[in-house]
Hints:
It is a single chain. By secondary structure, this protein is mostly helical. It folds into 4 domains: 2-67; 76-136; 138-171; 173-240, no CATH class. The protein has helices at 2-29, 42-67, 77-136, 139-171, 181-194, 210-218, and strands spanning 201-202, 222-224, 231-234. Strands 1-3-2 form a 3-stranded antiparallel beta sheet. Helix 1 (2-29) runs antiparallel to helix 2 (42-67).
Amino acid sequence: MAEQNDVVSIMKDFKSGLESDIEKLKSNMDGEALIEEPDFSIESDKTLDVNLKNKLSLESEIEALVDSDFYVLPKDSQTLLSLAEEGTMITKDQSRRNLNYYNEKVESLKKEKAKLQHLVNQAAQVDKKLDEIIQNQSETEVMAPLLWRYNMTGVIFKELRTELNDFLQDRFPQQDTLKSMNDILQEIVEKFLADPSDPYVDVEYDQIEPAYIQFLIKARIISRHQHDVSKVRLRDPRLS
């Protein structure tokens, strides 16, 4: 705070000196106490103008400093000690709150870690148990359920394919010179399986009913090429 008082004092002294210089310049211009021939050149006017601007700037800064609320420390040592203790207690309280917050955060992370570790341990136990079951079983016992699932999947697939074929023939009957819906789907699926990197099929509208293509697009079974609307592809069911 003493430094702020010193700054104000220095600026006031500078202001007084500057006012004195300006008064001398004014007296010289008025012809009073002339020692040398007064300089009425443009450079002299510029110097005076700069000094006046500096004076106004310093006055505004001094007024701002004087109007501001400076915190002046009391001279009583006991009061200073009380203020220091108060600031210490405030800092201590803020530090305690921050520490409590981070301790709670650490506890929360520990609980989350324990939960995830429990899941990992469970997965490891299941994996270990499966290894024990496989080791204790013969190859025939291991393959039997897998073969049963494979056969059941084949049966279900055949039934679904038969149902789909009947549905397509009923809803989209074969036309004389155009491909059937079944033929269109078979061509698109075969291209998708044969060349996944380029699964697009050219749509020849002179051989295909346009309504069939529109139906498959609306049903989200196929999609058009982004840059060539005459090409379509099967939508990957794994990404749907």
